[in-house]
Design goal:
InterPro entries: PFD_alpha_archaea, Prefoldin, Prefoldin_subunit_alpha
Radius of gyration: 28 Å
CATH architecture: Orthogonal Bundle
GO cellular component, one term: cytoplasm
Largest sheet: 2 strands, antiparallel
Shape: rod-shaped
Structural class: alpha+beta
Order of helices and strands: HEEEEH
Distance between the termini: 13 Å
Number of domains: 1
Function: Molecular chaperone capable of stabilizing a range of proteins. Seems to fulfill an ATP-independent, HSP70-like function in archaeal de novo protein folding.
Strand content: 5-15%
Number of helices: 2
Keywords: Chaperone, Coiled coil, Cytoplasm
Subcellular location: Cytoplasm
């Protein structure tokens, strides 16, 4: 009987370690999901801003000096028919606004697909986490019954 108890205790310890690993993996994937969602929002805002510049052809704008909009300054746009857009990891190009918007649309599609894959991975990890939790509970219940059986046989 005590070898059964030892086996159950070892199995529970292994599953608890696996649970910790899964918890960390879930945290990492959740962080990636939030980062992708934020990046998609940034791209959408850039697209909308380009559309407004194109539509209104205003030369005077308010430019944010930070990502959160704590400080703005008035600025004059020298060119309203082009934008400088990232075309690679560290490469930028001055392109017509329609082309810049097209590139942003492509980026958004790619990131949205990556977000879908990330969310799918998160669902799988969460499902596995729940399965491991259930198995731990089953083993703990078996261990408790075994210990009760040992006490009553004494």
């Amino acid at each position: 009987m005590s070898s059964e108890k030892t086996r159950l205790e070892e199995a529970i310890q292994q599953l608890l370690a696996q649970l910790d690993e899964l918890r960390e993996a879930i945290r990492v994937v959740q962080a990636r999901s939030l980062a992708l969602s934020s990046e998609i929002q940034e791209i959408r805002m850039a697209y909308e801003t380009l559309s407004n510049i194109q539509k209104l052809a205003h030369r005077e704008v308010l430019a944010s000096l930070d990502r959160n909009g704590y400080v703005f300054t008035k600025a004059q746009l020298l060119v309203t028919d082009e934008a400088i857009v990232r075309i690679g990891k560290e490469y930028y190009a001055a392109l017509p606004i329609d082309k810049a918007k097209s590139i942003l649309t492509d980026y958004e599609k790619d990131l949205t697909e990556e977000l879908r894959e990330t969310e799918s991975e998160l669902r799988k990890l969460t499902e596995l986490y729940n399965q491991v939790q259930k198995r731990i509970q089953e083993y703990a219940t078996s261990l408790q019954r075994l210990e009760e059986g040992l006490k009553s046989s004494r």
